[in-house]
């Protein structure tokens, strides 16, 4: 279901119940089950046959939710955090830079909560394969169960393994390797071994500290990787608010107004509050919509170190 799309909800589907942007719940559609939240009670049996994206009223008519198709992007928003996870700005950038597409073979470690694994699997399906390794036994087991439950088992092989001690156990098969490990530099030799020798191999290491980047870059250089580059992805969210538009007398409040703003100040003010008056048809706009960056912008997650391995055959 995560890498195939269907239009209507069916028994056994992993669906997403969307109440608000902050309240999204994964469910397995099961006749006899009822989903309850503050907006009311929703019978799974009444979801079956609905078109994905449909609005569903609660049984007691208290409110409504939307029934959405499961996607890796939604899963990243709802996945139970057993570890730190990758979020969408990093996921999309890494996927692009590692040149992930259908048919590619990818090696990942650690699996962690499986947030990135779901996106990789969807991107390389149906013919590609992801081998993901995790040394925490319980985490490896839960991730493996989720891949089966999400019908990704044909695309993902999850293994409980310490890749620093034991390598990946794979040679000359991977198009790309992704490392999210505390000591990625110790896995670079194993990554080199796992990468295909007949084409360009790509590697990315995801590390929160610049010292980790330095050691990984040195290891990559020593082992013959090239085009070593580091990026940081920072997403800036904007929200749209409707605010009252004061008339000119209220705005100036009897104060002396400085009409002599420089052109650059006027431009800056316009950009700061990208305003567009709500047109009520009469030209008497009383409100305006402003778009502003949200007060709490998410900060640094990690540095992304990329490199390529030229073909040796
Ligand atoms: C930050 S988490 C990965 C999160 C994952 N990228 C995601 O998006 O959900 C890092 C994981 O690496 C695992 N790990 C650390 N050292 C390891 C090793 N030597 N071999 C395999 N896994 C390891 C940890 O147990 C942890 O679960």
From TrEMBL:
Protein name according to UniProt: tRNA (adenine(58)-N(1))-methyltransferase catalytic subunit TRM61
SUPFAM superfamilies (UniProt xref): S-adenosyl-L-methionine-dependent methyltransferases
Ranges in a coiled coil: none
Cited Pfam families: GCD14 (PF08704)
Domain tRNA (adenine(58)-N(1))-methyltransferase catalytic subunit TRM61 C-terminal: 63-308
Enzyme class label: transferase
MF-aspect GO terms: tRNA (adenine(58)-N1)-methyltransferase activity
Species name: Coemansia guatemalensis
PANTHER family in UniProt: TRNA (ADENINE(58)-N(1))-METHYLTRANSFERASE, TRNA (ADENINE(58)-N(1))-METHYLTRANSFERASE CATALYTIC SUBUNIT TRMT61A
Binding site for S-adenosyl-L-methionine: 134, 180
Catalytic activity: adenosine(58) in tRNA + S-adenosyl-L-methionine = N(1)-methyladenosine(58) in tRNA + S-adenosyl-L-homocysteine + H(+)
InterPro entries linked to this entry: SAM-dependent_MTases_sf, TRM61_C, tRNA_MeTrfase_Gcd14
Superkingdom, natural source: Eukaryota
GO BP annotation list: tRNA methylation
């Amino acid at each position: 279901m995560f890498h195939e799309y269907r239009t209507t909800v069916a028994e056994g589907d992993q669906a997403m119940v969307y109440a608000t942007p902050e309240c999204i719940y994964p469910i397995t559609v099961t006749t006899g089950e009822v989903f309850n939240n503050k907006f009311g009670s929703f019978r799974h049996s009444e979801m079956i046959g609905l078109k994905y994206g449909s609005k569903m009223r609660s049984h007691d008519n208290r409110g409504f939710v939307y029934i959405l198709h499961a996607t890796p992007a939604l899963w990243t928003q709802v996945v139970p955090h057993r570890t730190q996870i990758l979020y969408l700005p990093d996921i999309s950038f890494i996927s692009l830079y590692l040149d992930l597409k259908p048919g590619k073979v990818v090696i990942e470690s650690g699996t962690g909560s499986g947030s990135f694994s779901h996106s990789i699997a969807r991107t390389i399906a149906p013919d590609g394969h992801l081998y993901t390794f995790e040394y925490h036994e319980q985490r490896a087991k839960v991730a493996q169960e989720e891949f089966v439950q999400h019908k990704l088992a044909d695309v993902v092989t999850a293994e409980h393994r310490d890749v620093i001690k034991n390598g990946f156990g794979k040679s000359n098969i991977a198009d790309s390797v992704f490392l999210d490990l505390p000591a990625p530099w110790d896995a670079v030799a194993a990554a080199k071994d796992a990468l295909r020798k007949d084409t360009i191999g790509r590697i990315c290491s995801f590390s929160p500290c610049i010292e980790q980047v330095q050691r990984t870059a040195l290891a990559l250089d020593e082992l013959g990787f090239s085009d070593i580059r580091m990026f940081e992805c920072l997403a800036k969210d904007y929200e749209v608010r409707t605010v009252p538009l004061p008339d000119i007398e209220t705005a100036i409040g009897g104060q002396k107004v400085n009409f002599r703003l420089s052109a650059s100040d006027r431009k800056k003010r316009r950009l700061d509050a990208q305003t567009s008056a709500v047109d009520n048809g009469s030209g008497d706009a009383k409100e305006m919509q402003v778009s502003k960056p949200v007060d709490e912008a998410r900060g640094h997650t990690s540095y992304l170190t990329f490199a390529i391995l030229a073909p040796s055959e």
